[in-house]
Design a protein that fits this description.
alpha+beta; 5-stranded mixed β-sheet; 8 helices
Amino acid sequence: MLRYLTLTLLAVLLTGCYSSRSLVHELTVAESNAKRLPALLPAIDHISLENAYLEQLAAVYNEPDGYADISSQTVAYAQGDARINDVTTLFERMVKDRWTDPYGQAEGYIDCRLTYYDETDTFSPYPLLTFASLGLSMMAGLPTGRRNIIAEVAVEIYDSHEGLVGRYHAIGACKFLVGSYRPQARRRANLLAVREAFFKIEQHLIQDHDHLSRALAQP
C-alpha cells in the first residue's frame, strides 16, 4: 500500500513539473516535407479568441470583422490572455513552416478563427481528497481537480480576389489537472487542443493540395 501511494505521489509530482515547464515545445512546429500550398498571408480573428478566453465583449479593432493581419508580426496582448498570443503564434508557424511556401508573392490569404471553446470539469478523486485532508493535499502540491478543454478551429483560404477556395474545421481536446502549483496547465492544455485541431486540418490541406493550388493560381 505504501509503495502504491509513493508511486502515485511521484507520478503526480512529475505531472506538476511537466505542467509548470516552458511552452516552447508546444509552440515549436517542425517544417513539413509534404506538398505545400503557394504563399498565403495568415490572418486571425482575434475577436473569436477574446470571446472564448476573456469571457467578455470583444474589443473593437481597426481591422475589418476583427481580423488582424499577422504576416509581419504577432500582436501582443499585454493586458489580455496569453492564450490569444499562443494561438496566434502557433497558427502563423503552421502556415509558414508547414502549410504554405514561405517565399514568393502571396496568392491570397488564409484566416483562422475559434468557432467553439468549452472547458468543463471531469470526474476526479482530487476534490474529495482535498476536502478529506482539510486542504493539506493542496498545500502539498497535489491537484484539486481535473478539467477538459474542447476547441474547434475553422480555417478558410481565399484567393487574391478574395474568393473562397477552401474551408476546413476540426476539433481538438485535452485534459489537464487543476492545482495551485500548475500555473501553466490551462494554457498548455488549450495550446495542445488547438494544435491537435490544426494538425487534423493539415491532413485535409494535403488531400486537397492540387485543387487548392489550381484555384489559387487562377488569374
